[in-house]
Inverse folding.
């Protein structure tokens, strides 16, 4: 099985998860739960703001300063730091992700030079993988599932109910996950509800 490094871009600003209507602490909690789950199966590199770097370092992740030029620039920075070898890129907003789900996806990905996992809406992308980092052609953004297919990534057959496919961009998506989210997200969400 490939020895994976996973790059996780995390927007470390007050505007993070603005569509979610979340506090910065809830947005951070979502990212922390994502990194905690992913880092069980791979070495984690988090690309984020220095102001929250220590929170991810406490989880054992290596932190790289966000170039502040958007998602694709952050992804490129993380891939460059990861070096050669098998590199995955995971978006930092899948708080229901379980370590075993991520490990299973990487095991599937090891069978393809380039692979990806679509979100639950089958329109976006939550994970891309490359057995050689230099082969990556990230295409995150609107309709990224189609863009990654066009770029030569193979779509992995990951169950629709997997936490890996359940990215959170809206309050409705977070509510739908219920108690499946990680402990940090649950605590931050409960706190926000209590103060709301």
């Amino acid at each position: 099985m490939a020895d994976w490094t996973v790059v996780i871009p995390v927007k470390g600003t007050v505007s993070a998860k603005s569509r979610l209507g979340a506090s910065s602490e809830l947005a951070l909690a979502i990212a922390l739960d994502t990194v905690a789950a992913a880092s069980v199966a791979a070495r984690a590199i988090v690309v984020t703001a220095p102001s929250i770097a220590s929170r991810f370092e406490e989880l054992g992740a290596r932190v790289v300063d966000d170039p502040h030029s958007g998602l694709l620039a952050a992804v490129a920075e993380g891939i460059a730091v990861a070096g050669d070898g098998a590199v995955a890129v995971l978006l930092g907003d899948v708080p229901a992700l379980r370590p075993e789900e991520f490990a299973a996806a990487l095991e599937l990905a090891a069978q393809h030079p380039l692979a990806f996992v679509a979100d639950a809406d089958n329109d976006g992308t939550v994970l891309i993988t490359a057995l050689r980092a230099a082969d990556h052609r990230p295409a995150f953004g609107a309709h990224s599932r189609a863009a990654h297919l066009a770029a030569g990534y193979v779509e992995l057959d990951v169950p629709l109910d997997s936490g890996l496919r359940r990215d959170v961009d809206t309050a409705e998506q977070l509510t739908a996950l219920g108690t499946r989210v990680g402990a940090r997200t649950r605590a931050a969400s409960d706190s926000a509800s209590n103060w709301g």
